[in-house]
Design brief:
single chain; 292 residues; alpha/beta; Rossmann fold; 2 domains; two-stranded antiparallel ribbon; 9 helices; elongated
């Protein structure tokens, strides 16, 4: 999605109330960009669905009944999105591990963005738990927006852009600005610092200033704030809630060289606990690097 608009959005669907928040958010964003939507359901085991899904159709097997019910529900959901927004919606059903199939669909169909819930229920068992969301964020070649349960959006007027002292931190700017520009959003630059050294702070403020300049060059209002704390993830989530943000953007690799994991501790904490939708962006090149 770097430096270009969003044309195709993937929304994994599990038919839960929690997952519906992601559907509504993704459909709203698709309407903003006049993008196509791909609704994807990953078939799970029969025990993962309500028993009443298998009532009737005495001559059909449980698998056939399930596929029929899922197909009908996806069609109903697609129809409601098209009627509300007038956008093209396609339905796909796959079988297998959710994270792998979602990432596979992105490559197969050249998708620009994934919008999915962090938690959800499929029948009586959880389908899109945080662990699956983490896997999708790690595996997907395109940005992923994870939607917390219960979040309702009425627009994209406030976007939080955390910036730290890493080389990759500023890569998120090119992914966020197209959305912010389309929505005429106010961009909140949240500088995250962990040093008291005056020289380090001066260098960081220069880097933060270059991001501010890019935002203003795009014709957007920009609010800048620098925070420091023992847990910058908590500070980031707290600030996003304080300004009623509709989205905050992070890089997946933050602290990854220290934790030994591709998805750093900062990113994992944000995706799992944020009350605000999170856009997770994989760095273009290399692991975590210092920009100092």
């Amino acid at each position: 999605m770097n430096n270009r608009n969003v044309h195709r959005i993937l929304i994994p669907v599990d038919f839960s109330a929690a997952g519906q928040c992601a559907v509504e958010y993704g459909a709203f964003l698709a309407n903003v960009f006049r993008a196509d939507v791909l609704l994807l359901h990953i078939l799970e085991g029969i025990n993962s669905y309500p028993r009443n899904w298998f009532e009737g159709g005495a001559d059909a097997s449980p698998k056939e009944l399930l596929e029929t019910r899922v197909t009908a529900k996806l069609a109903e959901l697609a129809d409601s999105i098209t009627k509300q927004y007038g956008i093209y919606v396609q339905n796909v059903i796959k079988t297998g591990k959710p994270a792998a199939r979602i990432a596979e669909a992105v490559v197969e169909r050249d998708l620009d963005l994934i919008v999915m819930g962090t938690h959800g229920l499929s029948g009586f068992e959880e389908l899109f738990m945080g662990s699956t969301a983490h896997k999708v964020v790690n595996m997907s070649p395109c940005p992923v927006i994870t939607i917390p349960e219960g979040f309702k959006t009425s627009g994209f007027k406030t976007i939080v852009l955390p910036v730290d002292d890493t080389m990759h931190s500023r890569q998120k700017v090119s992914n966020v600005l197209p959305i912010a520009a389309k929505c005429n959003a106010v961009v909140h630059l949240l500088g995250l610092v962990n040093s008291n050294d005056k020289s380090d702070l001066n260098k960081f403020n220069i880097k933060l200033g270059t991001v501010e300049e890019a935002v203003k060059k795009a014709g957007l209002a920009c609010i800048k704030k620098v925070v420091k704390g023992t847990n910058i993830a908590i500070e980031t989530m707290k600030y996003a809630q304080e300004v009623n943000a509709e989205m905050l953007a992070i890089m997946t690799d933050h602290e990854s060289n220290m934790t030994g994991m591709f998805m750093g501790a900062f990113a994992r904490q944000i995706v799992n606990h944020s009350k605000v939708p999170v856009m997770s962006i994989k760095p273009v090149t290399g692991p975590y690097e210092s920009a100092a």
